[in-house]
Amino acid sequence: MTQKTEMQDLHAYRAVQRVSKSNSLLTDDDIFLFNEGSHFRLYEKLGAHPMTADGVAGAFFAVWAPNAERVSVIGDFNGWNREKHRLYQRDMSGIWEGFIPGLSHGTLYKYFIASRVDGYQDEKTDPFSFRTEIPPRTASEVWDLSYAWNDQEWMANRYRRNAMDAPIAIYEMHLGSWMRSPDEGNRFLTYRELAPKLAEYLQQMGFTHVEFLPIMEHPFYGSWGYQTIGYFAPTSRYGAPQDLMYLIDYLHQYGIGVILDWVPSHFPSDGHGLGNFDGTHLYEHASPMQGWHPDWNSYIFNYGRHEVRSFLLSSALFWLDKYHIDGLRVDAVASMLYLDYSRKAGEWIPNEYGGNENIRAIEFLRRFNAEIYKNYPDVQTIAEESTSWPMVSRPLYLGGLGFGMKWDMGWMHDTLYYTERNPIYRRYHHNALTFRSVYAFSENFVLSLSHDEVVHGKGSLLNKMPGDYWQKAANLRLLFGYMYAQPGKKLMFMGGEIAQWREWAHESSLDWHLLDPGEYTHFHTGMQRWVADLNKLYASEPALFELDFSPAGFEWIDANDSEHSTLSFIRKGLKTDTLILVICNFTPVPREGYFIGVPRGGFWREALNSDAEVYGGSNIGNAGGVEAIAESFHGRPFRLRLTLPPLAVVMLTNQPS
User: Fold this and answer.
1) Could you say which of 384, 408, 497, 503 is catalytic?
2) What is the model's pTM?
3) pLDDT digits (tens, 9 = 90+) for 233-247
4) How do residues 267-292 score in pLDDT, each as one tens digit?
């Protein structure tokens, strides 16, 4: 080493030492709030931040590693040397910090951590990095998140689009497999390439929101993002952070809301990640009975640790602050709420009261919702909670968890169980359809036909349906129509709208070729048109969305005709007198002269019929509508004489004369 190089290294060393004491981004208040579990903008303080200190341009680094004996920043700028750029402890906070001159946007780096425990040493990705290398590479990058947004109109008015009495039809999608470039080795489309294609498609199809499976950085692509390792970094597989901002910005300008899947329930055990971060179980519980998830072979966060709560809540707010996200769907909430989730007797530790409730996780989720809605009352939080835990989507002041909405997993299981039956046997399972009315308004439900229903050998939605090709398509149209007619917001996973034949595969594009001319094309193009028309009717008729969460918006006509496997009910709105009558025929038998009691006379217009020829059906219907007969039926003063097409849903609208 030359004398000049030694002097340069000494200068860098002293710069780190000097700036870490006098020009830290961290104040004493920051440290107090962090250690208290109440710092919710940690991403502004920890991690790597380009800055100028004492007239010297460089980057400030800060990382929490309370059990470390030594921490240094290594990277391509110093040949990954573990000795050159050490960080310094900030009092007794557990935080190591320092300034390194000459570093700028795009610099690759990691933290080298030597623990006081058992001689542990490892190189770690920055938990607060804004960007990382494309997996399988694992370095973090110094990154400036500056971006000029153009979605001011959307942001000013999104409270209307996210409201409880607004139409919300969500298109759930996985960015890497929605559409690929087959002419270029089946490569991913980038965030920027997706923007115009996705925005135009969603607008054409009438979806109000899109929900991305987790886009936070994840080492294993096959986890679909659910094994998150970068809680502040969008995956680099599709581009840079600003490219994702461009995609969201573009969608907003097309009037499409953006919801992100967020995973605070568990994290992967990859060596460069959060696990065993400073040689101790820093982010996770030490006991495997509390800190290891048996289903997913991953770590479970220690929600009782103040600093971990600050980390997770900072992540949640980060996506709202920096990426203009319109909602967070929280994954696997049930696994957080129960200490014995997926565990046998003797494999879990009861809470202090002897119960199986995870009290620290409950406190965390309540605080999460309190902070989200305090800062962003115009967004929504949505829980994927698969049990009957009470009041998930009820306010905190009533004792609820405080989520805005909850997926109705019971409706999904019961409805798929029913529609998968051969129609000849459906009469014996009629209660699978009607049971939902017992609890339909106990939560603010989202009816979801998600990615989980079309993977791991379950088959596509189309392939779940019984019968030949025509019957499968008819059953699927009926399923979608029944979902849109039921109270609750809507969610459909990509591919369902084109009647994807094979189940979802994350390594390839959706089967868009099904829309090309062929023997069965009309079933696929018909399904696409059916979903678009469902979305159009749903968004244009307040009776279908205004009272989604109130029993005042729903009225059974006949829930008990199991012999004919039919259901009939009315949807009502708050601000309009329009009534929508829904009749579902779950058999392949057309029914002529079928009487339905209705509360009003006049003309009932056939607004949608899933058996129409344009959707791939047999074109049996009611010639545009029927006039009510002034004779009592089903306890109503009027009745309609209808033709019910096979395996179809018919929706008729009526306005007072």
Assistant:
1) 384
2) 0.95
3) 999 999 999 999 999
4) 999 999 999 999 999 999 999 999 99
Return the residue matching tokens 């040397």: 81
User: How far is it, in rounded angstroms, from Cα 70 to Cα 519?
Assistant: 68
Q: pLDDT at residue 1 above 50?
A: no
331 classed as catalytic: yes
Residue 56 has pLDDT above 80, yes or no: yes
Q: What DSSP designation does 54 have?
A: T
Tokens 């392949």 correspond to 588
Percentage above 90 pLDDT, the chain: 93
Q: Are 66 and 282 in contact (CB under 8 A)?
A: yes
User: What are the structure tokens assigned to 609, written together?
Assistant: 């019929």
CA 82/CA 66 separation, integer angstroms: 19
Question: Pairing state of beta strands 216-217 and 230-234?
Answer: antiparallel
- Residue pair 526/532 in contact by the 8 Å Cβ criterion: no
* HSE-up (13 A, CA, CB side) for residue 418: 26
| Catalytic annotation present for 546 | no
| Matching fold, domains 3-141 and 551-654 | yes
Q: Is residue 203 classed as helix, strand or coil in its secondary structure?
A: helix
What would the pLDDT profile of 330-387 be if each residue is shown by its tens digit? 999 999 999 999 999 999 999 999 999 999 999 999 999 999 999 999 999 999 999 9
DSSP string, 323-345: H---EEEETTHHHHHBTTTT--T
Asked whether 96 and 86 are in contact (CB, 8 A), the reply is no
* Maximum Cα–Cα distance across the chain: 104
Tell which residue, 633, 43, 596, 614, has the closest CA to residue 317. Answer: 43
Q: Which residues contact 64 (CB under 8 A, 6 or more apart)?
A: 34, 46, 94, 95, 96, 127, 282, 307
What does CATH list as the number for 3-141?
2.60.40.10
The residue annotated as part of the active site, out of 331, 408, 541, 546, is: 331
Among the four given CATH numbers 3.30.420.140, 3.40.50.261, 3.40.50.300, 3.20.20.80, the one describing domain 169-543 = 3.20.20.80
Would you state the CATH architecture of domain 551-654?
Sandwich (2.60)
Q: Is the peptide bond before 377 cis (omega within 30 degrees of 0)?
A: no
Q: What residues are paired with 146 via a beta bridge?
A: none
Ranges of each domain in the chain: 3-141, 169-543, 551-654
Q: Cα–chain-centroid distance for residue 578?
A: 33
Classify each residue of 97-124 as buried b or exposed e, where b means 16 or more C-beta atoms within 10 Å of its C-beta. bbbbbebeeebbbbbbbbbeeeebebbb
CA distances from 183 to 8, 192, 423, 467, 509 (A): 50, 18, 43, 36, 12
- Is there a contact between 233 and 131 (Cβ–Cβ < 8 Å)? yes
Residues 6+ apart with CB under 8 A from 403: 330, 365, 369, 381, 382, 383, 392, 393, 444
Task: Write out 309-323 in H/E/C secondary structure.
Answer: HHHHHHHHHHHHHHH
User: Are 75 and 110 contacting, i.e. CB atoms less than 8 angstroms apart?
Assistant: yes
